[in-house]
Amino acid sequence: MDPPNPNPNDAPSLPAESAARLAALSLCGTRDLPPDFHTAEILDDDEGYLTSASRGGSSTSAWKEAPEGLHDDDKDGDDVSQPSPRSSGYAGERGSSLDDDADPDPDPDQDWARGKKHPHEDDASSSWRKRKKHFFILSNSGKPIYSRYGDEHKLAGFSATLQAIISFVENSGDHIKFVRAGKHQIVFLVKGPIYLVCISCTEESYEGLRGQLELMYGQLLLILTKSVNKCFEKNPRFDMATLLGGTDAVFLSLIHAFSWNPATFLHAYTCLPLAQSTRQAASAVLQDIADSGVLFALLMCEHKEHTYVTLLTTRSDAFYDLKDSRAHIQNALLKSNVLIEVQRSLHENALRVEDLPTNPSSQSASHPPESSQDISSQSLSSEMAIGGPGGLWHFIYKSIYLDQFVSSEFPSPISNKKQKKGLYKAYQKLYASMHDKATGPHKTQFRRDEDYVLFCWITQDFELYAAFNPLADKTQAIKMCNRVCQWVRDLENEIFVYGESTLSW
């Protein structure tokens, strides 16, 4: 690979220069990425695991049409033995010393803020090549705009190579979607003059990685607005990186959410459980500030929505009233005891699988296709039965109509950072399999491996993702899922926001 360009303003943009650079990039054998790109054994704090080295030759192929899908994951309704995300190649094989001597688990909500930027790295650094997941934003002239790791200007040569690959395919009248190189997947997203690229060996699906790039593009537009396209029309070599100064933490927070927040793949948001009367009181407080010119009000607490109200205004100077409005809202919430109820909800209203009712009301219960049979509860060992009834460990319930979801707290069998991240990644793979356009969509899926049993059930009203202990019985698991759905219906007025205009994804 060419050495990095010390002058980012000289990144090649002419077709001849791009073609020359592309010709120097071999797309065969193991030379499509730097030789030590696959020998990844560096700890990536955001991903949480060491990446085991790749042995043997690698193969590379490019797809310009829709991918074939996950053939091994699209089984519908049968016991399918799938490798756990934490026992696959990207997470270190079983029997390794992975995380055996790891430090105490840090708070995942604070992990992203540690400064993962590593500005000293570039594409010539072995540590940079060993990162498990890279994100790049560049312009159609090859100028770097953002990089998750390393300094953007030091990666000018690498960005120009990515631009050359995209241009080469587009010049042939086609569009590049992704490239596989050994365990690595390179996903491309072209948005007019802005290119977004993800290089990952985390075994996430193409659809999942593309969705993450879409969210990054949305974050970019939120910061710079769509007028940035006009800047590129006037000057194709426009340097956008200068406009993003100081926003690294914003992108790092978003990237962190890809591993820790189900909202990023469910395309839904979660709300703080509150009594309906308390939520209405909070909405009334927000309504009172309409005269101040505020257009939109959203009350949040620990990444969970409390309530929101859309307030229309014709004033152009409403932004300058935000400080006064915030003080007014705080005083009003204190007087109405809303904040007291919020604090109580944070400590008492969390859903725990241990609290799953034993005899839910049967008047609105529904059953997935396989649940016609009923068996008596099987006795599990006391160690495996820790959690909820029937071996239930965790669940996520999404209301399709409201675009809102609720998830249970993690029980003791899933207590550390590695286990939680492993389960979220398993949910992501299950979601991608259920919504795979090539083989789906599916209504149910039951999957078992050495870490847990996963069950997914999708109807026109909701999506349910549940994790059980590895010894859980399939019919018993379906029974527990019915009870979870009924439980959520009984609590829906508290755990979901009704009445206000919806937030669309």
From TrEMBL:
Chain intervals for the UniProt region annotation (Disordered): 30-126, 356-381
Stretches with biased composition (Basic and acidic residues): 65-74, 111-123
Compositionally biased tracts (Acidic residues): 98-110
Biological processes per GO annotation: protein targeting to vacuole; vesicle-mediated transport
Pfam family of the protein (one): Fuz_longin_1
Residue ranges constituting the FUZ/MON1/HPS1 third Longin domain according to the UniProt record: 391-490
Composition skew (Low complexity), residue ranges: 51-62, 360-381
Sequence ranges assigned to domain FUZ/MON1/HPS1 first Longin in this UniProt record: 133-251
Function according to Swiss-Prot or TrEMBL: Plays an important role in membrane trafficking through the secretory apparatus.
Family of this protein: Belongs to the MON1/SAND family.
Record's protein name: Vacuolar fusion protein MON1 homolog
